[in-house]
């Protein structure tokens, strides 16, 4: 068997991983099988946290940790799944117009989400599901799971591309990103589109300035003297449990803030804070937050009756607009309106400044913006944890120019920006002051900006 290296996005170890998955697939199904391999990277977000689902920009980097999926055609209308990590058991499901999800937390739901996304997109463009080719997928994921580094997006992106490939379906990367962006909704998280866009559109040595509605991305060169230390706290940030409830609550709070602001400023119809920002000329976060304080108490009752009263609409109408998934249930804590909006709006200003800082190679400024982001995430968005804060303090003391939680928070990883020669000092400090006292296996590395997802063909023997 030979692998033709059609794409220099793949490094040697990724090609070897694909070859080993291919060997196992062929062992079961025949040496002459024509196979496709897809690699999709995870991402680390530099700044712009919890802004994407408000339609506001983000600045992530696709990382050199990837998921590889090798795919072969199989029985019509059947998807069969294996994972090289046996913690993720074999799964099979039938292709259908509406694929029912497995129980919450099942790894294969991300693959179902991807396939469902492809079906929804291409059905309206003439794809006949009754003629769809089934696909056998073999997965090797090396993006750490539940660590805030988008292992789920790496899996959905690679599965979507593999399923499309076997069925001869083509789509430009930017449209694929839009298509798979909603895939997490399938698993019940009202997530934005950052992770999938970063995984698909990443570029070597570049961060991506991503904007939404419509999705677009501009590469921003990483200064050559910058190093990114990414360290996993070991606190599970698993979006199928508590984190999902907290995440969805934040989405609702931000949507409410957008509507209350629009009413106060007479902006007409808006859905998200991004719509507000686009309608207000020369906006700034402080002025918008002041306007919001005028429009609403700091926090509102979660039954939405009070909010509906402020917005002059019925409670049910508001609930329908805010919670477009009936699985979303708000618990009895009040909804924070002002704090959440202050984070999202000030974070957007920081993202715009971060692009300027990175482009000018001003690492100190970039670090300061990252520190500001973390403070806002801690105080206003309330999604950090004591352990993340401890790691961040440690990284800064050891010489990081800036450090913050990355991803949804509530556990997961931190990212620390360092001058390259200082990265080893930051790693040593994390080992000595964080991992060792907790008796945790160190889970930190210098990660590099890597290319986005791509596909190669694996010729038969
Ligand atoms: C998760 C979501 C993203 C984004 C981040 C927070 O990673 O999947 O869409 O909202 O959280 O910035």
- Rg (CA only): 22 Å
Secondary-structure element pattern, one letter each? EHEEEEHEHHHHEEEHHHEHHEHHHEEHEE
Bound molecules: alpha-D-galactopyranose
Flag low-confidence runs. none
Mean pLDDT: 94
**Termini Cα gap:** 4 Å
Count of helix runs: 15
Question: Strand percentage, roughly?
Answer: 15-25%
Q: Rough shape?
A: globular
Describe the sheet with the most strands.
Answer: 7 strands, mixed
**Which bin fits the share of residues in helices?**
40-55%
Structural class: alpha+beta
Strand order of the largest sheet: 1-15-2-3-6-4-5
Beta strands, count: 15
How would you characterize this protein structure?
The chain is of the alpha+beta class and 461 residues long. Helices cover 41% and strands 20% of the residues. It has 15 helices and 15 strands. It has helices at residues 12-29, 109-123, 151-166, 173-181, 183-186, 194-201, 242-264, 273-279, 285-295, 305-311, 315-322, 338-359, 363-379, 386-397, 423-435, and strands at residues 2-3, 35-47, 59-74, 78-83, 91-94, 134-141, 206-211, 216-221, 226-232, 299-300, 335-336, 402-406, 413-419, 444-447, 454-459. The strands form 4 sheets. It has a 7-stranded mixed β-sheet with strand order 1-15-2-3-6-4-5, sandwiched between helices. Strands 12-13-9-14 form a 4-stranded antiparallel β-sheet. Strands 7-8 form a two-stranded antiparallel sheet. The longest helix is centred in the middle third of the chain and has 23 residues, at 242-264. The radius of gyration is 22 Å and the shape is globular. The mean pLDDT is 94. The protein binds alpha-D-galactopyranose. Alpha-D-galactopyranose (GLA) binds next to helix 6.
């Amino acid at each position: 068997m030979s692998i033709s290296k059609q794409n220099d996005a793949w490094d040697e170890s990724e090609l070897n991983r694909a070859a080993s998955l291919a060997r196992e697939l062929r062992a079961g199904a025949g040496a002459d099988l024509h196979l496709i391999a897809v690699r999709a990277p995870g991402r680390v977000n530099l700044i712009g946290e919890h802004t994407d689902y408000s339609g506001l920009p983000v600045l992530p980097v696709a990382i050199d940790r990837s998921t590889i999926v090798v795919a072969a055609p199989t029985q019509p209308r059947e998807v069969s799944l294996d994972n090289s990590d046996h913690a993720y058991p074999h799964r099979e499901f039938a292709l259908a117009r509406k694929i029912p999800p497995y129980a919450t937390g099942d790894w294969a739901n991300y693959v179902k989400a991807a396939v469902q996304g492809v079906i929804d997109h291409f059905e309206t463009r003439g794809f006949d599901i009754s003629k769809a080719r089934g696909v056998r997928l073999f997965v090797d994921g090396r993006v750490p799971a539940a660590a805030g580094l988008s292992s789920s997006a790496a899996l959905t992106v690679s599965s979507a591309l593999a399923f499309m490939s076997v069925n001869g379906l083509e789509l430009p990367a930017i449209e694929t990103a839009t298509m798979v962006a909603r895939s997490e909704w399938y698993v019940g998280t009202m997530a934005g589109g950052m992770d999938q866009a970063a995984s698909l559109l990443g570029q070597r040595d570049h961060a991506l300035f991503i904007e939404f509605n419509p999705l677009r991305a501009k590469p921003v060169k990483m200064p050559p003297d910058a190093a990114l230390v990414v360290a996993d706290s070991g606190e599970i940030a698993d979006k199928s449990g508590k984190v999902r409830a907290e995440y969805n609550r934040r989405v609702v709070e931000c949507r409410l803030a957008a509507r209350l602001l629009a009413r106060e400023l007479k902006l007409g119809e808006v859905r998200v804070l991004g719509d507000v920002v686009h309608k207000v000329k020369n906006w700034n976060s402080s002025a918008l937050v002041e306007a919001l304080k005028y429009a609403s108490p700091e926090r509102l009752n979660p039954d939405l009756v009070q909010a509906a009263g402020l917005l002059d609409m019925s409670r049910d109408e508001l609930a329908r607009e805010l919670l477009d998934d009936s699985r979303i249930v708000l618990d009895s804590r009040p909804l924070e309106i002002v704090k959440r909006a202050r984070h999202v709006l000030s974070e957007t200003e920081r993202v715009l400044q971060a692009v300027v800082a990175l482009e000018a190679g001003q690492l100190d400024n970039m670090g300061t913006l990252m520190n500001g982001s973390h403070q806002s995430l801690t105080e206003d968005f309330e999604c950090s944890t004591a352990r993340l804060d401890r790691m961040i303090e440690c990284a800064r003391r050891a010489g990081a120019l800036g450090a913050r939680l990355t991803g949804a928070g509530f556990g997961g990883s931190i990212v620390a920006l360092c001058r390259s020669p200082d990265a080893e000092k930051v790693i040593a400090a994390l080992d000595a002051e964080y991992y060792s006292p907790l008796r945790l296996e160190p889970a930190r590395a210098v990660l590099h900006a890597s290319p986005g997802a791509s596909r190669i063909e694996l010729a038969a023997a």
